[in-house]
Design a protein that fits this description.
With 242 residues, the protein is α/β, with parallel strands linked by helices. Helix 2 crosses helix 3. The N and C termini lie far apart (44 Å). The strands form 4 sheets. The chain has a 5-stranded parallel sheet with strand order 2-1-3-4-5, sandwiched between helices. 32% of the residues lie in helices and 31% in strands.
Length: 242
């Protein structure tokens, strides 16, 4: 199976270097390239790639802003000359972070990760795509502690590196699953993706207030406060209105 990929990178030289690396991997089909966030957004909407090679520092808007614009985010591999964004990149659920210039060996390691990720996705589609209900129970093990928790009793899911923190009662254990994996199974009637990092149970929202730049801020019954991204704020208003 071919892996459809796009490059969003403002440097023509960097794009050409990536294309030379991609040529050595027959499983990757490059379906387009863009030099800024706006054209990159349009390219991704039109091609629906499996894989995105994304620069961070670009004129006007950066790579993180592009990810904020997307409803469906491809597997993302950041490519940058700067290492100070590494931690932030994984907050955006990036699969890998390549420092320029990228060696053949380091690129191949990233592609191994991509292949594993796609194989896992196919496995989920084949056997694990069934939606959960509010009464469904999930098993959570964090260290020596274990819980069997009803989905409807979970207040919030939040990304923590490669893990997801699960909030219920006064507990906050970590689950070794991505937020995207979890979102695919949750009942849409009660769970809402507030931003790139958090999914909230709308039954536990105590208050909603307007926030900056068209965003909303949610106060939950456990005391947590969640800032809804601008794009998701519009969707939230539509979803929760009569």
């Amino acid at each position: 199976m071919k892996i459809k990929a796009v490059i969003v990178e403002d440097s023509r030289l960097a794009r050409n270097e990536l294309k030379e690396l991609i040529k050595k991997h027959e499983e990757i089909e490059l379906v387009g390239e863009a030099e800024n966030v706006d054209s990159g957004f349009e390219l991704i909407q039109n091609t629906r790639p499996d894989l995105l090679f994304l620069d961070i520092n670009m004129p006007e808007k950066d790579g993180f802003e592009l990810l904020e614009l997307l409803d469906e985010v491809p597997i993302t591999v950041f490519t940058t000359a700067f290492d100070e964004y590494a931690i932030k990149s994984f907050e955006y659920n990036a699969l890998d972070y390549l420092l320029k210039p990228v060696s053949d060996k380091r690129f191949a390691m990233a592609m191994d990760k991509v292949n594993v990720k796609l194989e896992n996705k196919e496995g989920e589609k084949a056997g694990y795509g069934k939606k959960l209900t509010e009464n469904s129970q999930i098993f959570i093990k964090d260290g020596e502690a274990c819980w069997l928790v009803k989905i409807g009793e979970i207040i919030l899911f939040e990304i923590v590196g490669n893990y997801t923190r699960v909030f219920f009662e006064d507990k906050k254990p970590l689950l070794y699953k991505s937020l995207n994996q979890i979102e695919d199974k949750l009942p849409e009637t009660s769970f809402f993706r507030a931003n790139r990092q958090q999914i909230v149970n709308t039954n536990y929202i105590e208050n909603v207030v307007p926030w900056f730049n068209g965003k909303l801020k949610l106060s939950l019954k456990n005391g947590e406060e969640i800032e809804v991204s601008r794009r998701q704020s519009y969707i939230f208003k539509d979803k929760m209105s009569l």
